[in-house]
Amino acid sequence: MSQDIQSKLMVGILDIDLCGPSIPRMLNVLNSAVHQCDAGWVPVYVDKDKTMCIMSIGFLLETPDDAVIWRGPKKTALIKQFISDVAWGELDYLIVDTPPGTSDEHISVVECLRQHKPDGALLVTTPQAVSIGDVRRELTFCKKTGLPVVGIIENMSGFVCPNCSECTNIFSSGGGEALAEQSRVPFLGCVPLDPQLSHSLEEGRNFIQAFPKSATFDAINNIVEKILSNNNESSTLHT
After folding, report:
1. Three-state SS for 228?
2. In the chain, which stretches have pLDDT less than 50?
């Protein structure tokens, strides 16, 4: 989704999944290094035109296999540093990728960004009841912390056959849309399980550029268009 927004606007990605930083691998910048400038840390740019930049703890680890075994205060300190000491430059969107749940990372980033008045949280669920229950708790978290909800996306909604492109609901379906209706928040759409998307993320390829005619591209693009139509000014999204 970030790559689709990037094709239209200047995008920054803040990866605060401190124990499982996967964004650098997905965007093929795993071996990049963070440098210092007068304004602070320089984020890693994904493209030559510098339309997308990333900051992640993955760039600060000695090896990709290093485990981050930190308590809450140390996590909070690094998140504050990522927000205040990174030279993000002029961005249209800052997308914050969080781990699942409602833990230290979520509390810290909401507190640190409150003064910037973020547009809100983008909640992602899968169709199964277990995942729906987790997202219900995240909705409660947003309500208690005063964080608006941009909308809900249902991920892994059906399986797209790589041969015939037919979509089959191997899990249940409609859970995300039902939750959005019950919670009175926007339902932004469904993204199916697509082997082409999975392989692109594993290999660090740009799915949007590689498969512009796929049904999954259309699904992602429709979601992005809904988000952009509701957010015309510079924005911060939590996912």
Report:
1. helix
2. 233-234
Q: Give the SS3 label for residue 13.
A: strand
Residue type, 154: E
- Residue 197: both structure tokens together: 């998307």
- Measure the N-to-C terminal CA separation of the chain; round to a whole number of Å: 11
Model confidence, pTM: 0.88
- The contacts of residue 76 (CB under 8 Å, 6+ apart) are 104, 108
pLDDT of residue 78: 97
Task: Judge whether 53 lies within some domain.
Answer: yes
What does the pLDDT read at residue 212? 86
The residue range of the domain holding 142 is 121-231
Query: Do 127 and 112 reside in the same domain of the chain?
Result: no
List for the chain the helix, strand, coil content (%; round to 5). 40, 25, 40
11-15 and 35-37 beta bridge pairing: unpaired
CA pair distance 146, 134, nearest whole angstrom: 18
CATH number, domain at 27? 3.40.50.300
Print burial letters for 51-64: b (CB count within 10 Å at least 16), e (below 16). bbbbbbbbbeeeee
For helices 129-145 and 175-183, what crossing angle results, to 10°?
Answer: 30
**What pLDDT shows up at residue 151?**
97
Domain count, the chain: 2
6 belongs to a structural domain: yes
Q: Are 222 and 189 in contact (CB under 8 A)?
A: yes
For residue 86, give the DSSP letter.
B
